[in-house]
Each structure stands twice: as C-alpha cells, then as structure tokens.
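Fold this sequence, please.
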Amino acid sequence: MIRFLLNNELITLDSVRADVTVLQWLRERRLKTGTKEGCGSGDCGACTVVLASVVVDDATNTKTLCYESINSCITFIGSLHAKQLITVEDLAEGDKLHPVQHAMVEEHGSQCGFCTPGFIMSMFALYHNHQAAQFSGFSEPVLAHLVDRHLGGNLCRCTGYAPIKRAAIKALNNIEPDQFIHREHETINALQSIEQQLPMHPRFLLPGSIEELASMRVQYPKAKLLAGGTDLALEVTQQFNDIDAIICIKQVPQLLAVSVDEQRISFGAALSLNQCMRTLRQTIPSSEAMMLRFGSEQVRNQGTIGGNIANASPIGDLPPLLLALNAELELHGSQGVRTLNINEYFLDYKKTALAADEFLRAVHIPVPDNSTQVFVHKISKRLDDDISAVCGVFCLSMQDNTITQARVAFGGMAAVPARASAVEHVLQGEQFNEATVAEAIAALSDDFQPISDARASAHYRMRVAANLLKRCWLQVTVSDAAVQVGDYVGG
C-alpha cells in the first residue's frame, strides 16, 4: 500500500496503477481542480504542488519539515509515500487567505488565473524555505534573484510577472508562522509513523535497502527504475505509453548518501539535483551557474544525478561536467559492485555500459587540486528552464600559464556526451595563448561532426564550441572579463 498525507488526511492506495500521476489522481479521483493541467511535461508549472518530508539533523537529531515544489504532472502517485502533499486548496484557513495568497491579491498578480495556483504553490514553498528567517535581512537584488529562481518554472501567459514578483517579495518580507508551522510536530509524527509501515503495492515497488533493490531488479526485469521521474514520466504523458511496474529507488538510504573529503565527493544516485548542487558548488563554484539553469526549481527538486546519467541523453547537462572531472560510477548488479570510469559508460546514442541487471549506485567525483580551474558553460535558446544546444566544460591544470593537463568535454556535439581528445592533445603542454586556442579550435572537427536538429544547426554547434574555447581563454587571461550576457545587463 502507498500511504501519504493529503494535507492532514491519511491516504492509503493499494490498487491504483503504477503510472498514475499526482495531477491525474488529484483532478480525476479527488476532484481537486485547483491544480491545473498545462503542458504535461514539467515546463509550465501550472500543476505545481508542494511536498513536505521529514529531515533529521544528524548533529542535533532535530526533526523538521522540508517543503519542496514539484510538477505534479510528471510525478507518479507512488512517489508520495511517507510525504505530505499540499495543494492550493489547503492553504487558506476558512476565509483567511495564506500570506502568499493575500499578497497576490494585494499586488493584483492574477490575470486570467490559469497559472495562479502554480505560482502560489511555488511562492508557498519559498515561504517555507530554510532561509525564511533571513529574508528580511536580504538586499532587494538578492531577494529578487531568489524569487526569480523559485518562480522560474512557472509560466504566466498573460506576462504578469512584475506584480507576481512584487507579491512574492511582499510575502517574504512579512514572514509569520502559518497553520503548517503550528502543526509541524503533529505532521512529523504522522509521517514518521507512515514511514515505519512496510510499503507494499503490487506494481509500485518501494525497496528499503540496496539488497532489496538488487533483488527486485532481478525479480522484476521489465519494471522501470524510478528516481525523480522527470524523464520517465514523459513516456506516459507525452508518448502515451503504459508502465505496468515501477521500482522506486527514493526510499533506499544508501542512494541518498553524500560524503565529502579532501580527495573526492560522493553522491548517491538518487540524490536530487538541488541537493547535489548545494554540495558541488562548495568545491567547484563554476558548476552552480549551470545547475541553476538545469530545468526549473520543481525539476531540480525531483530530478536526480543518477537519472541524468542513466538516461544517456546526448544533451544531458551533468555528463559533460562529470566527464571533464573524470568521475567514477559505482554500478550494482547481481554479480556484485563494480566501478567504471564515466568515460567508458556512454557507448552510443541512448546506449550505455550498464548491464541489464545493474543499477547506478553512486557517483564519485575527484576533487580538483589547487592548480586546476573548471569552467562550465551551457548554451540554450532560453536562459532558464531550457535544454542545452551545446554544453562545454573545461578542466585545466595550469602552471605559469602552461596547461599541464587538459580535460575538455561537450554535450550536444555527438550521439553521446564526450571528451574532446584532439582538443586536449593540442592544449596539453602548451602556453594558453591565442595561437594555442586557434589550433584547438581547428582540432574540434577531429573530435566532432555534430548534426542539425530543432535546437541548433551543425554549423552553429561547431561555432559555439569554438567560441566557448575562446571564452575559456578570456576567463583565464583577462581580469574581470565579461563573458556572460548577465555580465553586461546586470542580471
């Protein structure tokens, strides 16, 4: 059975199909139509709801609730096990609007109203952000940037963003405890009680350990592995396929682990992109700008590092970074655990070295030494919430302006994300100057013959890859070089 809280109501599901989405269940089974159906692919945010889950501080054993916005259109109902689902209908207390709703009314942020519930729920998640107590001390530009980030996955077709942003800032400047804060202790107890009960469902399987997951992988070979579902759910919502059985890995503690030491960073494969970003940016600051453009806040809350690798998309955002960092993948199968360098993982379009009975267990990233600089650049048509046309990552070790080691990786340039070995050969051992860059650009054609598609032409991709090499050189050699659009417009 799948058990979760719908606001304060305990829900138990024992026969619902594995591939029913939260949006479908809310609108068709519960007749909660405040949550809107828009794109069905996690792009517009009209279906945004909030999940609350229990977080334990290991140092103090303090339990709190973490509130995260998600796209209900690409979240399967079984993923809600041991969580609290909050929809727009749950926010008001009788006739008293929630502060984010009240701010939206005061600032006239709703026009046609279709997108409004989704914006409200994204604002509600931000209202309960762990930084909430600090909002009043933030400068106006910092607060505006935070609002942009959290509302970046919500589309307003009436172009009413200005009053919506004003409403969000107004609510954040007047944080006060709401009904959810007052009931936090009660909610935590209810969720922990659910978590202690064995989740059993004939088609939506929730292993609680690595060993159980490995056993299910063999026992149910046709079942789909589900982590965040931001890609898998599209098979249902966009391709109209049926998924008969699902193995959800988000309840396996080993796949949610993080460890950091002087040599490497290790992520469990089921860690969300936002969780990975918060750790990775401390060691590799340049990764944050790209990861903040990795889908929307809703997508980053659900999507996982393992899913972005396992789906083997040639335009996945993380693989070029992991290739340039020379990451190691930990694979678990019926024959045990093996480690594989990520450079050996991608074999062909959507084809990997993962065996049929294996799953990705962890990702190990070597920590760059002090002589190494990492440059990460994503090029897409839109700044936010868009798929890469080209992603380039340059990991360069330098000594007296001589490149002692070069690892360069691109996404969007071939059938798989790949290292640019010819470019690396040109760069390595040379002075990083304009002549070396020109030679490296000429070597790009030895590494890649990109195709033209809906996102970019082959010519454009080659030109962009060349320009990214120039950009990298400028970043190294020109102090305070403006290399991003935001550097010019102050965004």
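The chain has four domains: 2-193, 200-248, 253-366, 372-489. Residues 200-248 form a domain with the Uridine Diphospho-n-acetylenolpyruvylglucosamine Reductase; domain 2 fold (CATH 3.30.43.10).
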